[in-house]
């Protein structure tokens, strides 16, 4: 094939001429760079390959990482495993067996992603999140995602979401906001872990995590400063409790919620299941939802008033905790967020114990206007990636950013 035949076949002469004309109109200072970008945008992105591998999460446990390839770039995402270690109290033999089982499950998920999932998604537009997630869901018809695994599905879905944002040339949180149907300017109040207990810590403390919420801050940056500086100087007025009873103890949860002493967050009670959420709304068995990237357990939230004068919190509104890996895809997470908003609940976005270093939930919290985010203590890499991403987002938004502050419980309903 001659050069001219090649140019004619791919219509390169016309495309180059259009790019040059665009550079002239824009008075581009670097014509070559402008033309390259123009021609890149003129070509629509399509998924060309999905590749998975096993990595280690924050506990050193096997987890799934996904690389989603398009004809323009590669986008990476990961999701922590569902099985968390039980601390010093757990037997070594039992931990070893759990690790082996988890490694087998991750290896199976990697094979399925590299095979079936990749084949199903090749050729799709990464901007079409709903269609991509439906294609993933169609590969696993089980109610609890036991065939592919919710974390494996979530990693693919998040990678696609990142690719969609890149194709639109917008930040990830703005792309998520478009999917949710809201503007993206609300920075969440961080629920910062100060004391660990329960099975994850291996001590006798009956509460898994004690946390502080710096609701009196004027910005997310100031909130992180408050949380860090008050780490060792605490008082304990209780404002929120997560999953206080067994996941099927609807009656006790209802009794606690109706007392209206504090926010009662549903985690395993709801399991991000639309039917359980509907029941909780109708029976008033909790007034909050956790939007989580994995499975967690009972949490108490405390308001710190020792060093800074954090404003008093009136117990208002309802909150819903969503765990993305209980659902499996970004689209399903967004749907339960909308369900929570329709019930006038708030939304808490949450990590899981031993999370990976993927910072997706930071963008999700802003994109969904959640008002609350739980990402652990400001001292571990997998936690700091989320907090640092939120600091970057606030800096990028500048004067347009709004810190949820005292509206932490109702931000997602506005």
From TrEMBL:
One of its GO terms (biological process) is glycolytic process. Its cofactor is Mg(2+). Mg(2+) binds at residues 242, 267. SMART domains: Enolase_C, Enolase_N. One of its GO terms (molecular function) is magnesium ion binding. Mg(2+) is required for catalysis and for stabilizing the dimer. Keywords: Glycolysis, Lyase, Magnesium, Metal-binding. It is an enzyme of class 4 (lyase). Pfam families: Enolase_C, Enolase_N. Signal peptide: none annotated. Its EC number is 4.2.1.11. Substrate binds at residues 200, 209, 242, 267, 350-353, 374. GO terms for cellular component: phosphopyruvate hydratase complex. Pathway: Carbohydrate degradation; glycolysis; pyruvate from D-glyceraldehyde 3-phosphate: step 4/5. Residues 184-411 form the Enolase C-terminal TIM barrel domain. Residues 47-176 form the Enolase N-terminal domain. Gene3D superfamilies: Enolase-like C-terminal domain, Enolase-like, N-terminal domain. InterPro entries: Enolase, Enolase-like_C_sf, Enolase-like_N, Enolase_C, Enolase_N. Belongs to the enolase family. This is phosphopyruvate hydratase. It comes from Eleusine coracana subsp. coracana.
């Amino acid at each position: 094939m001659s050069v001219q035949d090649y140019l004619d076949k791919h219509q390169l002469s016309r495309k180059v001429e259009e790019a040059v004309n665009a550079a002239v109109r824009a008075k581009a200072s670097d014509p070559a760079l402008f033309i390259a970008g123009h021609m890149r945008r003129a070509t629509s992105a399509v998924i060309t390959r999905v590749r998975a591998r096993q990595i280690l999460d924050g506990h050193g446990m096997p987890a799934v990482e996904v690389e989603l390839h398009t004809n323009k770039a590669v986008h990476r995402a990961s999701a922590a495993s569902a099985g968390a270690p039980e601390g010093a109290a757990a037997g070594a033999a039992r931990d070893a067996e759990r690790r082996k089982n988890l490694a087998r499950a991750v290896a199976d998920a990697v094979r399925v992603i590299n095979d079936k999932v990749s084949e199903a998604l090749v050729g799709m537009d990464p901007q079409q999140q709903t269609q991509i997630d439906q294609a993933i869901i169609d590969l696993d018809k089980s109610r609890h995602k036991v065939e592919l695994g919710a974390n494996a599905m979530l990693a693919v879905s998040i990678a696609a979401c990142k690719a969609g944002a890149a194709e639109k040339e917008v930040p990830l949180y703005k792309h998520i906001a478009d999917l949710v149907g809201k503007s993206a300017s609300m920075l969440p109040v961080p629920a910062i872990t100060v004391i660990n207990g329960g099975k994850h810590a291996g001590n006798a403390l009956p509460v898994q995590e004690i946390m502080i919420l710096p609701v009196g801050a004027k910005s997310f940056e100031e909130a992180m400063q408050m949380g860090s500086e008050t780490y060792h100087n605490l008082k304990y007025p209780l404002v929120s409790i997560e999953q206080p009873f067994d996941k099927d103890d609807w009656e006790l949860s209802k009794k606690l919620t109706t007392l209206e002493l504090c926010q009662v967050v549903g985690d395993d009670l709801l399991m991000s299941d639309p039917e359980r959420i509907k029941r909780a709304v109708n029976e008033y068995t909790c007034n909050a939802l956790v939007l989580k990237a994995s499975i967690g357990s009972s949490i108490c939230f405390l308001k710190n008033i020792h060093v800074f004068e954090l404003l008093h919190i009136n117990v208002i509104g309802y909150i819903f905790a969503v765990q993305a890996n209980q659902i499996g895809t970004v689209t399903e997470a967004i749907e339960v967020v909308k369900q929570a908003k329709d019930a006038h609940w708030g939304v808490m976005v949450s990590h899981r114990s031993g999370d990976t270093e993927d910072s997706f939930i930071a963008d999700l919290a802003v994109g969904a206007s959640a008002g609350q985010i739980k990402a652990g203590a400001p001292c571990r890499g997998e936690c700091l990636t989320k907090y640092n991403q939120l600091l970057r987002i606030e800096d990028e938004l500048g004067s347009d950013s709004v810190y949820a502050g005292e509206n932490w419980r109702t931000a997602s309903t506005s």
